[in-house]
Design a protein that fits this description.
Length: 341
């Protein structure tokens, strides 16, 4: 399978190049940039192997069978119709096609919604929960980094209705690479080092994405409280979630439910009682590690879910989805262990 990457100079794009370097069935044949065409990718990222020269962003210059769009919202919705019409399969890393209702997209992303037909056509690429539809899709809306950690963490409890459907709280923290390679005041060293910042309080664009999937699983789910924090590290997301049990439970039963639910999901690892994951446990890998606690005094369940935002939260899940689309084992090319420390 020959693939192209648009936005290869960004963090998501270059992570795709890294992961696909050792993929046995996918070969990157063209990498594209809207601002640095003609430049070698090694001049942008000297650590890269290979002899990729960035190509212009023109339909005639794109090659292969499948295109990864690692581009900002708005850019993806502009390119996707042209790519689909030309017969490419498309996996979009941006938020453009994740929300089925265009008016919800317009409200939260504060930009014009993509074409309604494409919103209907796009398949939400949370691989573990959508394999059948991904397998036959032409357009994948790869999930956001925070929603991936959050939804994998909450799914068993929501689907089995083991929690009351209101007052779910999601407290999430991200490393700075989640904001991409572009520089801005909020992400430079003296603003982020030795600092923790809450941002986009009750206005984060991932809120409707999380709620859409939770309501698909259980239509009684209420809006969630979702808070995001920028913390002084490069990669990683930790989402800590608090929900009230619908009836008295035990930690052993909750862990059993998670293990059973994810027994055929090689990238989701559930911890034993008393063990909680940290972001280094998944650094550089496609794993989502989940730890669980239950407090009898409050009847509350705590779920801790960690991912690498650039791998399971972006490029890794995109490759996992491409594997499913092509009928290969979903782990193909993604089996490298996390880096520690
Ligand atoms: N970083 C993360 O952890 C995650 C990111 N995402 C999403 O993935 C997408 C890529 O993110 P990320 O790699 O972090 O972002 P970056 O800012 O690092 O990279 C985005 C790339 O898009 C290209 N680009 C910018 N403007 C245009 C344009 N007008 N036309 C074509 N290409 C353009 C740029 O390349 P050039 O100037 O060379 O064209 C740039 O390198 C975004 O939609 C982001 O929201 C999703 C999950 C996690
Ligand atoms: C740390 C940081 O700034 N993270 C970004 C994640 C952006 C992202 O992935 O955006 P889409 O999923 O909407 O494409 C944020 O919170 O907006």
């Amino acid at each position: 399978m020959k693939v192209s990457i648009i936005g290869a100079t960004g963090y998501g794009g270059v992570e795709l190049v890294r992961l696909l370097q050792h993929h046995p069935y996918m070969r990157v044949v063209s990498v594209h940039s809207s601002s640095q065409a003609g430049v070698s990718l090694r001049d942008v990222y000297p650590h890269m192997e290979g002899s990729f020269v960035l190509r212009d962003l023109r339909m005639d210059d794109i090659e292969g069978d499948l295109v990864f769009l690692a581009t900002p919202p708005g850019v993806s919705s502009e390119w996707t119709p042209k790519l689909l019409a030309a017969g490419y399969k498309v996996i979009d890393l941006s938020g453009d096609f994740r929300l089925r209702d265009g008016s919800v997209y317009a409200k939260w992303y504060k930009r014009q919604a993509p074409n309604e037909e494409l919103l209907k056509q796009a398949v939400y690429g949370l691989t573990e929960w959508n394999r059948d539809r991904i397998a036959t899709a032409s357009l994948i809306a790869n999930p956001g980094c925070y929603p991936t950690a959050t939804l994998l963490g909450l799914a068993p409890l929501v689907i089995e209705k083991w929690i009351v459907p209101h007052r779910v709280i999601i407290d999430a923290k991200s490393g700075v690479s989640g904001a991409g390679r572009g520089v801005s005041l909020g992400v430079h060293f003296s603003e982020t080092n030795e600092n923790v910042k809450i941002y986009k309080v009750n206005t984060h664009q991932h809120i409707p994405e999380i709620e859409q999937m939770l309501c698909d699983w259980n239509e009684q789910m209420d809006p969630v409280t979702f808070s995001t924090h920028l913390i002084p590290m490069t990669r990683g997301i930790m989402a800590t979630m608090y929900a009230e049990a619908a009836r008295p439970l035990s930690l052993e039963r909750i862990i059993e439910l998670y293990k059973e639910t994810y027994k055929h999901c090689p990238f989701v690892r559930v911890r034993e009682a008393g063990s909680f994951p940290c972001t280094k446990d998944v650094y550089g890998s496609n794993y989502c590690d989940i730890g669980l606690a239950y407090d009898k005094r409050t009847n509350r369940i705590t779920v801790v879910s960690v991912i690498d935002n650039l791998v399971k939260g972006a490029a890794g899940q995109a490759v996992q989805n491409a594997n499913v689309m092509c009928g290969w084992d979903e782990q193909t090319g993604l089996t490298s262990m996390p880096m520690y420390p």
